[in-house]
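Hey, I'm writing a tutorial for new members on how sequence and structure tokens pair up, and I'd like a real worked example in the thread rather than a made-up one. If someone can provide the structure for the chain below, I'll link this post from the tutorial.
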Amino acid sequence: MFAPLAGRTVVVTGGSRGIGRGMALRFAEAGCRVLVVARAAEAAARTVADIAAAGGTAHPFAADVADPAGMQAMAAEAERHFGGIDVLCANAGVFPSARLEEMTPEAFDGVIATNLRGTFLAVTACLPAMKRAGRGRIVVTSSITGPVTGYPGWAHYGASKAGQLGFVRTAALELAPHGITINAVMPGNILTEGLTGIGPDYLARMTAAIPMGRLGGVADVANAALFFASDEAGWITGQTLVVDGGQILPEASADG
């Protein structure tokens, strides 16, 4: 039996859609108070409304994770509204597609700014509150793409996700004396709003790559984040958890 997380404050960046929205809903279901962070206030408010409709507690906040002032304001809002920060889900990310021959330096820098620099800014903004409390949990949303696999068009995305893991491992060493853990979830093919409109054939190919025979759901990743945030995971830090239905395991495609 896991100790309850009810009453703890959780900050979720990128909380208006996809995996981030799933995390916000799951933590709220567990009784946590959730600050839902998104670039657009209206988008964050929609997730908050869904949480409230289910009987949970949440508050919206608009900020861009690539903006240092925005991340400082985010942490201040969590402390002002909820009295502290127990958990940070550094989830916000972008994944535009561009082959190397067409990728501009600006496009590369934009992905790194959100996915990697944004992780650094969100983490460092929340650290003072966690240090004052003498405990904290940080969960970073990385990916199998970059650290383990590659995918055409996602060189910048893969670089940012691999970079997150390097950040996590060193941050874990620095944060351990303060009672703060930092770990990463690494999703595989997850069914989110971003896959709408890609067509049944492409979805079928994505599903065929997964030994368990289905695309992952946002709840699958959210449950992994919930574990890393638990008291029972208190002696786990600097680690990764692949959530992919076995996607990275085959040496070759089953029909190869």
